[in-house]
């Protein structure tokens, strides 16, 4: 790209927002093993080939019988073949952990990307991959597997010790058979992992710029002086922070906040327990004031939240309502808050923490959430409607909110609200970030093609959390 600069008093001043420098260690990046971002959310007739050729897994496609594989617990295993595809079938299961296993050797401080294709003999059941080592158990990921087709489980973990380990699978329903195929476990050093991040930054966030100084006739200027300034501190991509009404009376904080962020959401001011403390008496004064402040500074606002499924965070008067009264109150709430701010927000968290809690479903039935989104779409169809949830990418041990469970709920909502713009909201409350699992979860959720937002990012402090290298990895 060429940029023309007119001569003025023999001094050329150019404002440049982005200057790209070559990445350090470019030679290492070129040779580093690439990460495979492939993820499938479709249930397929035949599993795809293992990622990374299976990595360190022995006999990943079962082409050598059961070599490298053995029964785990009291299960029985056998190789089967269907339509030319060979796989291992686990049956006669008496405990959730009865399955198939392979012994491995892990390296400390190494990130492992794991995947496998799973099928169950009947119905649909959650199946998880677990890695047992001398230091404990690592949950590698989970999938809601179906019968008659294959589902991809993609996950990962970081090994905290060097030594032997064992991969196995678990499912609470012991009456089903678990079929598994196309395994992969690929190790990455921390340097290789960092190189993947740098490559993506270079690809997505950087561009090469050619600067040429010319006069009014288009002739190149020799010995021109060019000054480069950063035009603004704000990034060119959405990044934000929550605010509450205290910012309205704190001028230093206003200056600090508005110079850094492009997006915000309100901590409590738009939530139901804040806007309708008593039935029929709505007060949007604080939310209106915060929205006005954001508009003045060209900061976009996410609507958070319309409903919260946690029973602890409801208006006090809601608990005594009958199901019919509650249904009317919810309808009024959705219409009231969303119609008030239609056209002024960039997104809505329609239901908050729906995978962990079920206050409204317990009272209004299993279709309550899809019905909420259908009404929300009818009120404001112009912006994405998010399902906001925690532990979907933070904690592989939380079976309630795995990417597979999130997608299951999303499909339920889309089944009743087919034309709605949907978005994936991930609260992102981290302890020690499990980077490999986080990456795999984002791959899986990204296969939907929907926008993904990290909506409430925070990381707990810990003995190793303050190291600059830890933050760079994150």
From TrEMBL:
One Gene Ontology molecular-function label: endo-1,4-beta-xylanase activity
Gene3D superfamilies hit by this protein: Galactose-binding domain-like, Glycosidases
Keywords noted in UniProt: Carbohydrate metabolism, Hydrolase, Polysaccharide degradation, Signal
Every GH10 domain range: 222-474
Pfam families (alphabetical): Glyco_hydro_10
Single GO BP term: polysaccharide catabolic process
Top-level division of the source organism's lineage: Eukaryota
Transmembrane residue ranges: none
Record carries keyword Hydrolase: yes
Family as reported in the entry's similarity comment: Belongs to the glycosyl hydrolase 10 (cellulase F) family.
The protein's name: GH10 domain-containing protein
Source organism: Gossypium barbadense (Sea Island cotton)
Organism phylogeny: Eukaryota, Viridiplantae, Streptophyta, Embryophyta, Tracheophyta
């Amino acid at each position: 790209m060429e940029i023309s600069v007119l001569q003025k008093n023999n001094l050329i001043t150019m404002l440049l927002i982005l200057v790209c420098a070559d990445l350090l260690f470019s030679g290492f990046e070129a040779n580093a093993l690439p990460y495979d971002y492939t993820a499938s959310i479709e249930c397929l007739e035949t599993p795809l080939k293992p990622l990374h050729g299976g990595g360190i897994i022995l006999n990943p496609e079962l082409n050598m019988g059961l070599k490298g594989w053995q029964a785990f617990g009291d299960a029985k295993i056998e190789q089967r073949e269907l339509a030319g595809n060979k796989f291992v079938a686990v049956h006669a299961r008496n405990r959730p952990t009865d399955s198939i296993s392979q012994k491995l050797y892990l390296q400390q401080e190494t990130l492992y990307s794991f995947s496998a294709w799973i099928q169950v003999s009947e119905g649909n059941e959650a199946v998880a991959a677990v890695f047992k080592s001398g230091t404990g158990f690592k949950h590698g990921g989970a999938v809601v597997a179906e019968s008659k087709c294959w589902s991809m489980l993609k996950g990962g973990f970081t090994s905290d010790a060097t030594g032997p380990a064992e991969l196995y699978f678990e499912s609470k329903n012991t009456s089903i058979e678990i079929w598994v195929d196309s395994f992969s476990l690929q190790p990455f050093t921390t340097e290789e992992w960092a190189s993947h991040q740098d490559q993506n930054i270079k690809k997505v966030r950087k561009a090469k710029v050619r600067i040429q100084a010319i006069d009014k006739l288009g002739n190149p200027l020799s010995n021109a002086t060019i000054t480069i300034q950063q035009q603004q501190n704000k990034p060119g991509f959405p990044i934000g922070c929550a605010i509450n009404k205290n910012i309205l009376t704190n001028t230093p904080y206003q200056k600090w906040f508005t110079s850094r962020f492009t997006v915000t959401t309100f901590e409590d001011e738009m939530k139901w327990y804040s806007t309708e403390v008593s039935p029929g008496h709505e007060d949007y004064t604080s939310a209106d004031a915060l929205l006005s402040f954001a508009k003045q500074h060209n900061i976009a606002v996410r609507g958070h939240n319309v409903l919260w499924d946690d029973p602890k965070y409801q208006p006090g008067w809601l608990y005594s309502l009958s199901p019919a009264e509650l249904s009317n109150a919810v309808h009024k709430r959705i219409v009231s808050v969303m119609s008030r701010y239609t056209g002024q927000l960039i997104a809505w968290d329609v239901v908050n923490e729906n995978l962990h809690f079920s206050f409204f479903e317990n009272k209004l039935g299993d279709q309550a959430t899809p019905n909420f989104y259908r009404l929300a779409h009818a009120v404001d169809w112009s912006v994405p409607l998010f399902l906001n949830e925690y532990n979907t990418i933070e904690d592989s041990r939380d079976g309630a909110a795995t990417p597979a469970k999130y997608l299951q709920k999303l499909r339920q909502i889309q089944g009743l609200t087919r034309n709605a713009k949907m978005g994936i909201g991930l609260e992102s409350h981290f302890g020690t970030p499990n980077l490999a699992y986080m990456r795999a979860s984002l791959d899986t959720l990204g296969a939907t093609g929907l926008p993904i937002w990290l909506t409430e990012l925070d990381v707990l402090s810990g003995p190793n959390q303050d190291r600059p290298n830890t933050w760079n990895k994150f």
